[in-house]
Amino acid sequence: MSPVTAAAAPSERRDRSRTLERVQELHDAPLAPLTTFRLGGPATRLLTATTDAEVIDAVREADAAGTPLLIIGGGSNLVIGDKGFAGTALRIATKGFELDGTKLELAAGEVWTDAVERTVAAGLAGVECLAGIPGSAGATPIQNVGAYGQEVSSTITEVIAYDRTTGDTVTIPNAECAFSYRHSRFKAEPDRYVVLRVRFELEDADGLSAPLKYPETARTLGVEAGERVSAVLARETVLKLRGGKGMVLDPEDHDTWSAGSFFTNPILTDAEFAAFHARVVERLGADGKAPAFPAGEGLTKTSAAWLIDKAGFTKGYGTGPARISTKHTLALTNRGDATTEDLLALAREVVAGVRDVFGVTLVNEPVTVGVSL
User: Which of 221, 244, 267 is the endpoint of a domain?
Assistant: First the structure.
């Protein structure tokens, strides 16, 4: 349950009411159009806030009333139940792109992929390989968004957030964000912090990219891992790679009616990886080999996409309105008339199948609202 703040004084309540009058308010409002899955039922009430002050006042009002609150940014990481959300949904639509040398501050509501394009156009490096990722800037520290060898935790310096527990606006430095693979302090405490702004320190490399870490990107560009290329070229290459996998939003392409990668790559202990490897050999023979990447002392990361494919869930799998993408096994998609239950049924089938074959339990990356796997 969301923390409840102390009741405001009468004068504060009057000021808050005047602020909320400027916020767009809808009742019994459809939420599906606000998500990239285009799934989910309505919210009892939907507010759209365009300033930090409006965000804070809307959150305070909901918390003071004990009303369930759902924060929505770009909607690219949400799975909302067919019954919708019984409470207040708050869509953060704040704007703000402030660049000072290599320092960048983004309002939470800024479209992330547009912000990446603007930093590259300014000749700065550090987020160019995160091009094409749907969603808003405020979501990036929550998930520690990453792709093609970059993670936002490498460039974020501070996150400005509203702390629902204390009622204060706080500035949290990178070292206190507890960033890890697709995780952070904000994800660990989802009912505490509402991200308002994110600050980054980028690199002026005379128009060059950061050193390329991802083998596929380097190979596509014809260079060695660790080399730099034009940041513009790196961004364009990533967009092409993502587009070929259905990972760039296109309203005409149902393969992009998804949340991108639906499952995180499993991280296994040495014992778990040994048991997994034995299953791989049993299924694929003595030469069977699964992807394996160091993930810290005693830990190995493997590929969720590989697991899904080798367990028999190939591209385009499914006959119903929710299917695996025809371009990438890691994306579950809405073919146009799916329900959330259709999607979850497919997700559960994939999870059970991978577990039965390899003994590994996949974990969903998108946040679920009113439903669970």
Answer: 244
- Domain total for the chain? 3
pLDDT digits (tens, 9 = 90+) for 110-119: 999 999 999 9
Given 61, 110, 158, 365, the catalytic residue: 365
Nearest to 262 by CA among 181, 331, 328, 334: 331
Output the domain CATH number for residue 58. Answer: 3.30.43.10
> Among residues 350, 359, 357, which one has the least CA distance to residue 271?
359
| pLDDT bucket at 23, cuts 50 / 70 / 90 | confident
136, 258, 261, 325: the active-site residue: 261
217 and 237 in a single domain? The answer is yes
Query: How many Cα neighbours within 13 Å face the side chain of 6?
Result: 7
Dihedral Cα 259, 250, 149, 179, nearest 10 deg = -40
Residue 158 catalytic? no
Q: Is 154 a catalytic residue?
A: no
> Does residue 2 lie in a domain region?
no
pLDDT value of residue 22? 65
CB atoms within 10 A of CB 206: 10
Q: What is the pLDDT of residues 137-181, one digit of tens each?
A: 999 999 999 999 999 999 999 999 999 999 999 999 999 999 999
33-39-40 Cα angle (round to 5):
95
Per cent of the chain over pLDDT 70 is 94
Helix axes 270-284, 340-358, angle to 10 degrees: 90
Amino acid in the structure at residue 101: G
Q: Is the CA virtual torsion 263, 276, 346, 191 positive or negative?
A: negative
Q: Give the domain-ending residue among 37, 60, 92.
A: 92
Please report where in the chains the tokens 């891992």 appear, as a residue. Answer: 225
Active site residue 261: yes
Is the pTM higher than 0.70? The answer reads yes
Q: Which residue among 38, 45, 91, 182 is the active-site one?
A: 182
Which residue, 23, 119, 40, 115, is CA-closest to 75? 40
